[in-house]
Amino acid sequence: MALIVQKYGGTSVGTIERIKNVAAKVKSYVDQGHHMVVVLSAMAGVTNSLIELAHQISPDPDPRELDVLMATGEQQSVALFGMAARDLGMTARSLLGFQAAILTDRMFGRARINHIATERIRDLLTRGRVVVVAGFQGVDEDTGDVTTLGRGGSDTSAVALAGALNAEVCEIYTDVEGVFTTDPNVVPAARKLKQICYEEMLEMASLGAKVLDIRSVALAAKFGVKVHVRSTFTDREGTMVVPETHIDEKLMVSGVAYNKNEARIKVLGVPDQPGVAMKLFTPISQAGIVIDVIIQNTSADGATDLTFTVPKTDFDRAMGLIKEIAPQIGARDVKGDTNIAKVSIIGIGMRNHAGVATKMFTTLARENINIQMINTSEIKISCVIDEKYTELAVRALHDAFGLAEESAPAAEEVA
Amino acid sequence: MALIVQKYGGTSVGTIERIKNVAAKVKSYVDQGHHMVVVLSAMAGVTNSLIELAHQISPDPDPRELDVLMATGEQQSVALFGMAARDLGMTARSLLGFQAAILTDRMFGRARINHIATERIRDLLTRGRVVVVAGFQGVDEDTGDVTTLGRGGSDTSAVALAGALNAEVCEIYTDVEGVFTTDPNVVPAARKLKQICYEEMLEMASLGAKVLDIRSVALAAKFGVKVHVRSTFTDREGTMVVPETHIDEKLMVSGVAYNKNEARIKVLGVPDQPGVAMKLFTPISQAGIVIDVIIQNTSADGATDLTFTVPKTDFDRAMGLIKEIAPQIGARDVKGDTNIAKVSIIGIGMRNHAGVATKMFTTLARENINIQMINTSEIKISCVIDEKYTELAVRALHDAFGLAEESAPAAEEVA
User: What is the CATH T-level fold of the domain A246-415, as seen in this structure?
Assistant: First the structure.
């Protein structure tokens, strides 16, 4: 008998039938004697319809009121689930953000959870209730205003609840079977990982693998919450996201990720003197644009080239800003390219193994893929390449690191 | 400069365009320097869709969860209104039941307001905010569970807020221009009343005129709230619902109401002895069925006939119960009739005037309409008739009491 937090995403509760199926699934846990906290997203499509409604009324909807509107999606899910649960003989209690006491800051649309006051949930659990919490929403700690946590916020709700309640496990039910070595749409031989550690998952998530929201992974790491990513539609085990110390076999490379949502900006002939980078990047960050990779070429003639990437959606704004600043700092030219992709390999096993980068570069070279930029961290190596080679690069890397094999070679064997 | 509570019904906020129009209407009041509290219903159709959704998931939806679901309708309206308000330069704040501190009992689906803690609303008003309250909803005072006030509940929300805030007036905006002397669909010459007192409005509401929810009228009477029923779609004055003392001209008959939603049950040959009525009606009231009119014929042979009316929707259940009890108390037979209607005349002026009933009976007789049952109170007379004569009766009575005339004759003149 354990305390289990389960989160079901929008597809899992996308129809009346599916909500009933999820209720039946939860019942099988209740029947085994577990204490259950169920976190639900809005039914698939509802969130987008609400956003559309908001934009019909205003080109720039008031953020506070947008959260009030958005929160209704999850509210409807938990109410419907509560009804289905009762029909199956469970005594469920739905809780909205203010009732579950999910206390956040006041950043509407992307609020952060400050604290969860768990008294009410604990009390309901002791009284044998299935607690059904509306994901994605909270309330401003000071005013009680409704807030939402942003896209993927229900994952965060679930992990935060699991942490606050010290749950045995946080199960994230979704429409895929777990975390794969790479996108199975690109590499059909991609293999489901049994385990992955928080750090690897963070890199995977931030590099574009969309299984689990990145903030929820950071939160899980912070509180040591074991996260089980699995499919609503099968009973098969998924992928356990756990502390590094729990990993049985540390793979040198656990996965290959890619991201086509960035664009590159190149500032040519920048005078090689102190303060230039600051003048260039301060306006960009002040505009709220996140810069990912930056590289600076060594210069020969007292001038250098600065290249960096920004999200594709911010490309036009960033180009506008840079084109204004470039002449002021004496740069020669500015060039932009939106046809790029970032391909990355991730693995905690690579921490102490120098051969990994070389193998990656060799693999790409063998396919005649030119590397435009390189960025590395302790557990990942990213290369920016021409977008059209993305799938080719992913397949080649997946193959080169033997990720399709039943048990990929451990770090020791490869190094 | 006054504190004004305005309530807009589902039709008034039925589309994005209409919500914008309502926001513009509110702005014209703000521009005049008034403090504004706006209470909104769910957009037309939304409440019914939610009920349908609930019934798709369960034949008998959990009442607690049904309220959680239903409350999302008004939540969406206030959020959308808040966005529209900001675009017009107003600083609006939407408040849900728990935020507006509308504290109720725990009767899900038909909760009663116990108390409204107005501190937050007053604070927002002093800071120049337009306060936008989700109608129809509150929270259980003890647990904070979401409750709803039942159909027409937004009227109740508005009047209760106006009472608690001591507002100058509570304006109920709807899709009709006010309270009419009778249903204009039946009598095109029906006239809009300038004033009506609470007692008359109560009788009108409970007899089937659907302009204003009956509980909101009772509440208005209790707190002396002046209610202005008017149309969202014109600027014309509507009808003021006020204390009797404010009525300038006390009409003997202010209106003719009708109700086709009742059915009649007749128990024949009931032994004329003490306790029989109790045995008959106790099970009915225990089943939650509300009996309206009861009549008992004088008996000749030690047996009597008991006739009463129940809501049409409860007719089958009531018949079942009565058919079980009737043999036990020695009654001879039970007969039911669903083809009946109740036609009523209402007016505070009739209190001291005996001629009114006679005039009503004469009018119906002249049209060859048989009166099956009669029920009277101080300010109304109701006759149960064959349903098919409803419109005929309403027209004849409206005409006989001169209600179409620009200024109907006052009680003094007729008596």
Answer: VC0802-like (3.30.2130)
A19, A57, A75 member nearest B80 (Cβ): A57
* Segments making up each domain of chain A, as ranges: 3-175, 246-415
Least Cα separation, residue B231 to chain A (angstroms): 23
Most B-contacting residue of A38, A83, A102 (CB-CB within 10 A), to test interface: A83
What pLDDT digit, counting tens, does each position of B165-223 carry? 999 999 999 988 999 999 999 999 999 999 999 999 998 877 766 788 889 999 999 99
What is the mean predicted confidence (pLDDT) over A383-403?
Answer: 96
Nearest to A256 by CA among A399, A142, A131: A399
For B124-171, the DSSP string reads HHHTTPEEEEETTEEEETTT--EEE--TTHHHHHHHHHHHHHT-SEEE
Q: Nearest CA of chain A to the CA of B167: how many Å?
A: 25
Residue A77 to chain B, least CA–CA distance (Å):
8
What residues in A contact B84, CB-CB < 8 Å? Answer: 57-58
- Closest-CA distance of chain A to residue B123, Å: 12
In this structure, which CATH number among 3.20.110.20, 3.40.1160.10, 3.30.2350.10, 2.60.40.10 belongs to the domain B3-175? 3.40.1160.10
Which residues, in sequence order, are CB contacts of A67 under 8 Å at separation 6+?
A: A108, A109, A111, A137, A145, A146, A147, A148
Distance CA A81, CA A77 (A): 6
Which residue, chain included where needed, has tokens 């906290």?
Answer: A37
Identity of the residue in B72, B80, B144 whose CB atom sits nearest the CB atom of A75: B72
Q: In whole angstroms, give the CA distance from residue B339 to residue B370.
A: 13
Instruction: Please indicate whether the domains covering B3-175 and B246-415 agree at the CATH topology level.
Output: no
Chain A hits for B54, Cβ within 8 Å: 79-80, 83
Residue B192 is classified by DSSP as B
Identify which of B20, B65, B96 has the shortest CB distance to residue A79: B65
Interchain proximity B94–A68, CB inside 8 Å = yes
Q: In this predicted model, what pLDDT tens digit does every residue of B126-179 receive, in sequence order?
A: 999 999 999 999 999 999 999 999 978 999 999 999 999 999 999 999 988 999
Q: What is the dihedral of CA B235, B159, B220, B181, to 10 degrees?
A: 40
